[in-house]
């Protein structure tokens, strides 16, 4: 059997406010694994952009398996997407889903931190309670509570 993928390593999100993004994902239950400025010829080469200067923060889930890279560009300046806050049916990465202990508690904590609920909390059969929240940089964070 030919395998091309060993694992999903991490998901990267470009943000304009790194402290706010760190706060959002910390409230969600993630912890900082590491942070550092990154620049140099290899970064320019992989991005296809000259003189890249970014600050990255790697965050991990409580189980240690899931990682999220928060990236703040210092140079070049961010390119705005239109619309800036894309609806759920926009092309591209749709959402990042996290399984949580309690959707209601997580929604309350994230709302207190400035996040917005998209739609409402819904139940899928007797299996899950689900919702979408608008997170940092307009990304959609899906929350799932297992009912089994």
Report on the architecture of this protein.
With 148 residues, the chain is of the alpha/beta class. The protein has two domains: 65 residues, 2,3-Dihydroxybiphenyl 1,2-Dioxygenase, domain 1 (Roll); 51 residues, Roll (2,3-Dihydroxybiphenyl 1,2-Dioxygenase, domain 1), CATH 3.10.180. The protein is 19% helix and 39% strand. It has three helices and eight strands; from the N terminus they run E-H-E-H-E-E-E-H-E-E-E. Strands 1-4-3-2 form a four-stranded mixed sheet, with helices on both faces. The longest helix is centred in the first third of the chain and has 11 residues. The model has no long low-confidence stretch (mean pLDDT 92).
What are the defining features of this structure?
148 residues, alpha/beta, 2,3-Dihydroxybiphenyl 1,2-Dioxygenase, domain 1, 2 domains, 4-stranded mixed β-sheet, 19% helix
Condensed summary:
With 148 residues, this protein is of the alpha/beta class. The protein has helices at 18-28, 41-47, 103-112, and strands at residues 11-14, 31-39, 53-60, 67-75, 96-99, 116-124, 128-134, 140-146. It has 2 domains: 11-75, 2,3-Dihydroxybiphenyl 1,2-Dioxygenase, domain 1 (Roll); 96-146, Roll (2,3-Dihydroxybiphenyl 1,2-Dioxygenase, domain 1).
Task: Describe the secondary structure blueprint for this structure.
Elements: E1 11-14, H1 18-28, E2 31-39, H2 41-47, E3 53-60, E4 67-75, E5 96-99, H3 103-112, E6 116-124, E7 128-134, E8 140-146
Parallel strand pairs: 1-4, 5-8
Antiparallel strand pairs: 2-3, 3-4, 6-7, 7-8
């Amino acid at each position: 059997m030919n395998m091309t993928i060993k694992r999903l390593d991490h998901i990267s999100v470009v943000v304009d406010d790194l402290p706010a993004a760190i706060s959002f994902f910390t409230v969600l239950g993630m912890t900082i694994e590491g942070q550092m400025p990154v620049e140099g010829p290899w970064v320019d080469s992989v991005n296809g952009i000259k003189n890249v200067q970014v600050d990255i923060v790697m965050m991990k889930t409580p189980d240690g398996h899931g990682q999220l890279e928060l990236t703040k560009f210092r140079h070049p300046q961010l390119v705005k997407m239109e619309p800036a806050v894309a609806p759920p049916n926009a092309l591209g990465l749709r959402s990042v889903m996290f399984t949580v202990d309690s959707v209601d508690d997580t929604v309350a904590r994230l709302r207190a931190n400035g996040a917005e609920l998209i739609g409402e909390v819904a139940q899928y059969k007797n299996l899950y309670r689900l919702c979408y929240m608008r997170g940092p940089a307009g990304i959609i964070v899906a929350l799932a509570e297992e009912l089994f």
